[in-house]
Amino acid sequence: MRVTLISFLLLVLNSSCFGQQDTVEINVTDYGIHPDSRVNVEPEIRKLLKENRNARYLKLVFPRGRYDFCPNKDREDLSDAPVGIEIRDRSGVCIDGQGSEFVFHEKMMAFNVQNAKDITLRNFSIDWDRPLISQAEIVGYSDTFLDLKIDKNEYPYEIKNDTLYFTGEEWRSKIGTNYNNIFNAGNKDLVYETTDNPLGEIWNATAELRENGLVRLHFPLERKPERGTLIALYHDYYITDGIQLMQSSRLWLEKINIYHALSAGVSASECEDITLKQVNIIANEKKNRVFSTVADATHFSGCKGRIVIDGCTVTGAGDDFVNIHSMYAPVVEVLSDHEVLLAQHDRYIGFEQGEKAWRVDTATMQRRQILSVVGQEDELENDDVTGHRIKFNENITGILKIGDLLENIDKNPDVEITNCRVMKRHRARGILVTSPGKVRISNNYFNTAGSAILIEGDRTVYYESGAVRDVAIENNVFENCYTSEWGEGVITITPSITPKDSVSPAYHHNIRITGNTFKHYDYALLYARSVDTLVFSSNKIIYTNTYPPFSRKVNVYLDGCRHVTIGDNICDAAFPGRNVWIKRMKETDLGQFGSSPLKVSPAED
Asked: What is this structure's pTM?
């Protein structure tokens, strides 16, 4: 009941962009900020926000048009990226773009919302005239060279000392080594069965300008693309996010098109109650682009309350559509009977006074004792954070040891993702979610290059935690997903823990995949590792024959799962396989019902 009431109040509050009698509403044109002027509006917006910081509710209205934002060169902290619009340490702010285009320049963050509450962002687009990705058309090739047609007005470049450099506003870069991707000329989908750097080490190519204005890159091609194929060339990675939300609550983003951002489109860290409604992270088709963000479309870390993502579309993103997770923190030293030292890592989100922590046994990845946090202090060396001292209310003697993990219980959200379109025109996978909260993924359309849905849990690389306990994947359409090997099937469940045997405890719990439609060209529908109580039932499975199959010849692969139920799935007669492979499981762990049971066999490695 609490979640329903909060959601209702948020809807009423934000759908009107406040509307209270004591709202201070400012039309920015009344303060000399005019659309389509091409002047830098960042200083004036910063001034308006500062002058009205004591308003109980502040609404800034931008009459429709183009507004340009350039970096503030005089900011005090030059270590952080400059910000176009910053909302920090305040509440009750609405930015209403009225359908405007917000265009950013150089390397900067569009929005930073930090230590704030009751914030609404709505009705605008975000883009760069000169993005941090370049695009080219492949017009010729051989075994040893590639000919590119590059629009020099959109993607300026120069060739110096046989090296191709792309240039932008205050930057100059070669082709990046992280990844590049190729897209079909017609529908602009990622080319079938390609992943990162499909052509080979293009960044090591020598370059020459041909008489016809083409750029020839000399390097050994690993794959020969069709002429007309488009290639997105990334110049950097994880620079700064488009809309960054930090330590804030009751956040409402609506009717926003993010055409480009220098890392994730929307990122949220340690926030509570976030709604994204019709927030589209999409390639700018008016500019014939195949790319949008440099990294994830959206990323949520250590959040709580409720995350709602409704009616959103993604194309052209440099990584997954949604990634929602919390954090594992490795114990590196037991300092006393009430205190430990935790390792510092990039995904660390911390433990605040009064929060609860699970002790996680790394051998089994099972949650064990619950501990109460008294406080946290950073361990510093030359002003750099090297670790974190965490003090507990309980005596931890014999409970915590070096190598254990701590997981923050409080920083895990409920999740609702509905009515979204997740297209093959973006890199990697669709939805990644690891949270023990209530997760609902329903009424979405998936047409992804990698897995449509990935439920993972990582103890070694990114430390992304959140073993699930209540996930419903219902009434979605999965059409020709998993055409590139990002994942193990249309739906992939692969925590980093591998069960030792048929009695090892499972990592994830209670995942139901019901009432969906799979329109698929290949075998691999579901790959699940270490799940207790898994249901795959009442789904409709249609064979498309759109692409040649490439994955293992099994429909459902189960490794170390317990209490699995499969039944009442309606399957085309032409659909290949109709089978299940099992590994590290007892026969009694799999139950089938209905008139067409799948053939069960031991898994082939």
From this structure: 0.95
